[in-house]
Design a protein that fits this description.
Strand content: 5-15%
CATH topology: Rossmann fold
CATH superfamily: Glycoside hydrolase family 3 C-terminal domain
Shape: globular
Helix content: 25-40%
Number of domains: 1
Radius of gyration: 16 Å
Number of strands: 3
Distance between the termini: 21 Å
Number of helices: 5
């Protein structure tokens, strides 16, 4: 299991992000771990979306845990190791490629402007 993500030092109130990408060092770490060709589940810990296109291409499995809270570790382990096959959910938002933020002016709230916003209007290929 490889935990990647961001925390409140990067996102949150008064911490608007200028990128939806993971920090570069985490992409490097993921590439090094995945190059070992061992069975690896990437677990993402974050509040807002993170772009992980490279990891999607090479990781056997990726789990989005968001900020999982007090019982998060137990829920993650139960999901990965199959203690309850009915655990799981659906993504509450579209995950865009990292370059999405250069394609649309972030202060423009028009849903259909540029590549479009939300799954309904986005004209590109979303990561998820």
């Amino acid at each position: 299991m490889l935990l990647l993500g961001i925390d409140e030092s990067v996102e949150g109130e008064s911490h608007d992000r200028t990128s939806i990408d993971l920090p570069a060092t985490q992409h490097q770490l993921a590439a090094a771990i995945l190059a070992l060709k061992m069975s690896t589940v990437i677990v993402l810990i974050n509040g807002g979306m993170v772009a992980v296109e490279a990891e999607k291409e090479s990781a056997p499995a990726i789990m989005e845990a968001f900020y999982p809270g007090f019982f998060g570790a137990a829920a993650i382990a139960a999901t990965i190791f199959g203690a309850n096959p009915h655990l799981g959910g659906k993504m509450p938002f579209t995950v865009y490629p990292a370059d999405y933020i250069t394609q649309v002016k972030m202060s423009d709230m028009e849903m259909t402007a540029g590549p479009g916003r939300s799954y309904k209007y986005y004209t590109g290929t979303p990561t998820w």
